[in-house]
Amino acid sequence: MNLGEVSLVGSILVFDSGFGGLSVLEAVKELLPEKRYIYTFDNEAFPYGELSDDTLIDRVNRIILALCETHSISIVIIACNTASTLVLPSLRAKLDIPIVGVVPAIKPAAGLSVKKAIGLLATPATVNREYTLALVNEFANDCEVVLVGSTDLVKIAEEKIQGKIVDKEKLERIMQPFKDKVDCIVLGCTHFPLLREEINEVLGKGYKVIDSGEAIANRTMQLLSERKKKGDIENTASLNEPNIAYYSAKNSDVEKLNKELAPFGFTEIRRVPFF
C-alpha cells in the first residue's frame, strides 16, 4: 500500500529513541485496542542518554513534525524519559494536539514503600536531570532514594527485542545498589519494563517494581475522550489502515525487525519521511 494513500485519522503516534516505547504502546493498546498506531524510533541517534540537550531537542522536533505532516495524528506520546524532560515545551509550541510525556513514577513509589526507601533506575541523563531531582524532592522527601543510571541496560533491552539472550550477570551487577536497601524500584526508562521478568528474577522477593505505562495509558485515554467530546477527532480510523513503524536510519538490525514488531500489530516498517 502506498503511504500517500493512507489517511490515519485519529492515529496515536508513539515515539522513542529505540524499542523501549513498545512497553508504553502495549499499555495504551490495552485501553484503546481499536485505535491505529504509528510507532517511531530514532535508531540513528540511539541511545538518547548520550546526546547533548540541543541535539536531542532538534532531532525529536524534526521527526515528530515530519510525521504529523504525513499523517493525521490525534495525540503524540513521547515514550522516552530522557526526551520528555526536554522536548515537551518546544513540541507543544508547534503542534495544536496533545503531547504526552513520560516521567519517572516517583510519587506512587514513595506511597508504596514500607521501608521508605526507593530506587530509581534510569539513564544517566534522566538520573542527573534537575527535573528528576525536583520530583524526588517534591514526592519522596520522606524517603531514602537510591539513584542508578545505566546506559548498558538500555542496550540490553534493545538486544532482547532483537532476540538476543539477556546477560543476567551484567543485569545483576546493575541492580546490586538496590539490594537490601530499598523495597520499591522505579523503572525510569521505557526500555526497562521490557526486562521486567529478568529484573524480578535477579532481585528476588521483597521488591515492588513499577513504571509509568499504566499512568500514560490512562492520560492518553482521558485526552482523546476530551477531544472526541469537542468534536476535534473521529472515533476511529478505517479498519483497512495498518499500524506503521518508522525508523530514522536503515541498518542490518532494522531489516530483522518485521518479525519482532509483528506481535505489536505493525505490518509495515518504513523510514521517517523528509528526515
Automatic annotation (TrEMBL):
Catalytic activity: L-glutamate = D-glutamate
Keyword Acyltransferase annotated: no
Keyword Metal-binding (UniProt): no
Pathway(s) this gene product operates in, as recorded in its UniProt entry: Cell wall biogenesis; peptidoglycan biosynthesis
EC number per UniProt: 5.1.1.3
Catalytic residues, chain numbering: 80, 189
Binding site residues for substrate: 16-17, 48-49, 81-82, 190-191
Pfam family, one: Asp_Glu_race
GO biological process entries: cell wall organization; peptidoglycan biosynthetic process; regulation of cell shape
GO molecular function: glutamate racemase activity
Keyword vocabulary terms for this entry: Cell shape, Cell wall biogenesis/degradation, Isomerase, Peptidoglycan synthesis
EC primary class: isomerase
HAMAP family linked: Glu_racemase
Membership in a protein family: Belongs to the aspartate/glutamate racemases family.
Function comment: Provides the (R)-glutamate required for cell wall biosynthesis.
Record's protein name: Glutamate racemase
